[in-house]
Amino acid sequence: MPDAPGQVSRALRAAPPDQLAEAADRAIRRSLGASRTEVFIADYRSSGLWPVLEPDRPDGGFLSGHGAAQRCFSSQQPVQDAGEDGRCRVCLPLSVWGERLGVLLVELPAAPDAATVEAARDVAGELALALRAADRETDRYRRARRQERLSMAAEMQWDLLPGRSVTHGDFLLAGQLEPAYTVGGDHFDWSVDGDRLTVTVLNGAGSGLAASLLTAVTVNAMRNARRSGGSLVEQAELASDTIFYQHRGDRYVATLLMELDTRRGVVKAVDAGSPHVLRLRAGSVAPIKLEQQLPLGMFAETRYDAQEFAVEPGDRLFVVSDGVYAAQPDGQEPYGERAMARSMRSTRLQPAAEAVGTVMRELHAYHADADLRDDAVVVCLDWRGSSPPDDAGGQ
């Protein structure tokens, strides 16, 4: 068998950023003997897969109408679909470091052997990496992701995100924003650096472009401190001072900052406002009680303290904004009182990237599928436990 991944990789490096799907199609046909390929990109809600090569999008999204692609996207495993004519369509996940971008479909003249499937999976990995990099150079793949026009605020929010999921040897992490096409101030951010994972969740104040601008300033202030080697407390304090001296206390941002030591399973946290942390352990959901401190930017020179709590291998942490926890449609009890815990318990067999979608779908159902009245963010963190360190230390 020819070196399919190598051929595709070389073709992608030589292609313009807006022509990756076409370059991959030609290389895959040559190296794997495929009769056709198609590249599908997940939309902002991960509710459908939309074609890059096809000019006309199918109503309802490809994901909702094709079981093999749906299973591939959800399981992140290759799925084969044999046709009556003997041809076999192989659906392969397009993902980078755990972020699920979409699905690559490769149609072969017959059912492939294990070596061909593995080569096709490596090809999909090369294409996914190229697509992720090309997002900075072309709008083509971002256009495929949207079912409707984004508001200006939402455009800024999605550009500010680090991604939507990440896989690491010690943890799985995923997040989702809603309403996806009009979200204003709610946001999440994260960074992986050695044995330290930093996660922040913002419950943005206000709505529309003003809320998005405030969130952008807050996130970039925290990133500035973090990238300069600042501690979690220093990240909170720089962001708070930046906001205050811009708005003199008239605007502020409720924020939760967390830092997981992936070696020891210890979380440091600065609770500066209203995002809530809940732990799913052994099928039971319980809140993590933290000392709530002032939101970022409320007063000048506000000082913050970090608290610690431990996690155990297999623990799942959910962080939700008020738009989730306090959602109270049509006079019902808040979603966070009982319904949210039920939805979280139902995710115990799902990966983190599926779990955030489940909680959001249940939130929409709680609203009887009416538009959400507030921005909502859900972040899910699974700590798998770490390999023993080289020395005999550890918790």
Please describe what this structure looks like.
The chain has 395 residues and is an alpha+beta fold. It folds into two domains: 4-144, Beta-Lactamase, CATH 3.30.450.40; 149-383, 4-Layer Sandwich (Phosphatase 2c, domain 1). 34% of the residues lie in helices and 26% in strands. It is built from twelve helices and 16 strands. A six-stranded antiparallel β-sheet has the order 6-7-16-15-12-13. The protein is globular, with a radius of gyration of 22 Å. It starts with a helix and ends in a 12-residue tail after the last strand. This is Serine phosphatase RsbU, regulator of sigma subunit. Residues 168-383 form the PPM-type phosphatase domain. GO terms for molecular function: phosphatase activity. It comes from Micromonospora narathiwatensis.
CATH class division of the largest domain: Alpha Beta
Portion of residues within helices: 25-40%
Low-confidence stretches: 390-395
- N-to-C span: 49 Å
Structural class: alpha+beta
- Mean pLDDT comes to 91
The major β-sheet equals: 6 strands, antiparallel
Write down the Rg: 22 Å
The CATH superfamily of the largest domain is identified as PPM-type phosphatase domain
Backbone shape: globular
The helix-strand sequence is HHEEHHEEEHHHEEEEHHEEEEEEHHHE
Number of domains as seen in the coordinates: 2
CATH domain topology of the largest domain = Phosphatase 2c, domain 1
In spatial order, strands of the major sheet run: 6-7-16-15-12-13
Beta strand %: 25-35%
How many strand elements?
16
CATH architecture of the largest domain: 4-Layer Sandwich
Number of helices: 12
